[in-house]
Fold this sequence. Notes:
By secondary structure, the protein is α/β, with parallel strands linked by helices. The protein has helices spanning about 50-55, 80-85, 105-110, 125-130, 140-155, 175-185, 210-220, 225-245, 265-270, 295-300, 300-305, 310-320, 325; strands spanning about 15-20, 30, 65, 90-95, 115-120, 135, 160-170, 190-195, 245-250, 270-275, 280, 295. The protein has a 10-stranded mixed sheet with strand order 9-8-7-5-4-3-1-10-11-12. A two-stranded antiparallel ribbon has the order 2-6. Helix 2 (about 80-85) links the parallel strand 3 (about 65) and strand 4. Helix 3 (about 105-110) crosses helix 5 (about 140-155) and helix 6 (about 175-185) runs parallel beside helix 8. The longest helix is centred in the middle third of the chain and has 18 residues, at about 140-155. The chain starts with 16 loop residues before the first strand and ends in a 10-residue tail after the last helix. About 45% of the residues are buried. Iron/sulfur cluster binds near residues 257, 264, 266, 326 and 329.
Amino acid sequence: xxxxVFPVSSRVKLPDKVQIExxxxxxxxxxxxxxxxxxxxxxxxxxLEMFDMLLDQFKQAREIQLRGLGEPMLHPAFTQFIxxxxxxxxxxxxxxxxTLLSEKxxxxxxxxxxxxxxxxxxxxxxxxxxxxxxDGRLSEVLSNLEMLLAxxxxxxxxxxRVTVTSYIMRENMAQLPQLVELAGSLGVxxxxxxxxxxxxxxxxxxxxxxxxxxxxxxxxxxxxxxxxLKESFSKVRNLGRKNGVEVTLPPLGPGRNGNGKKxxxxxxxxxxxxxxxxxxxxxxVGTPDRSHMGNAASEGVASVWNGPRFSDFRNRLSExxxxxxxxxxxxxxxxxx
Length: 337
Ligand code: SF4
């Protein structure tokens, strides 16, 4: 094979940020999220041993997010995932709908191992929240949040840093300022809002995604919504300053994922492993049946990270010919907004 040179640039260093999904299903059935699709799946829990073995292979990792599509508190060993990662010296974060918080879990979360906690709250209104997040009750989430913040105060660790986050939808975009005020009144540290991950218009979209795709198409803000969104963002920033809540907002304008890597460096910067061990290009993909690069648990992290499927995916992104799934993604903004 003399004369064959593999380009050095095609090998990508394993990233120092890793996202691993402990649970791939959710107890809620939010209209905009595919998490509810696998609600009754029995195989959505990552075994703790698999997690440990993956961490062995992500030797360079400095930071881990225990999150994905599912609700991590469904996992009976959820707090052990946190402790195990923290014992390895990793900075640990997780994300939750906070409906399943018990006193025992709250005490564990404020003990010092968890650095950051992101809580999804889609609306400050019980009615809107209940409509968007079927099976969820806002009053329950808020009372759990109060309990958690009180435990953090008593523990004196100052950890975790608590962020409230919302997806931006036509239904809730005018309510975001009220949500920031509410978060500030409870003592939350930060607020972020994100565009829905994408319009899911690829022809190969699994059938069970269709209700979510149709809901997203209806709720994704359009150019006509821009003035309302702009005003809402402006109020959010002001109220954040007034209430001591650090605010992070995405661009108002449209995404440009036709430009590939210029707009998305996720597949180079971070690794995402689903609860089944399958490595996906990014969390925006949702579930591995839309796209995955191979099974990191059975094939090995490094082989998948620099395997032919992932290399081809990255090449297409960097060469301005993004994979179909990326063409309808809102990484750089809201498509069509
Ligand atoms: S779907 Fe593609 S463009 Fe969107 S975040 Fe993932 S890798 Fe990036």
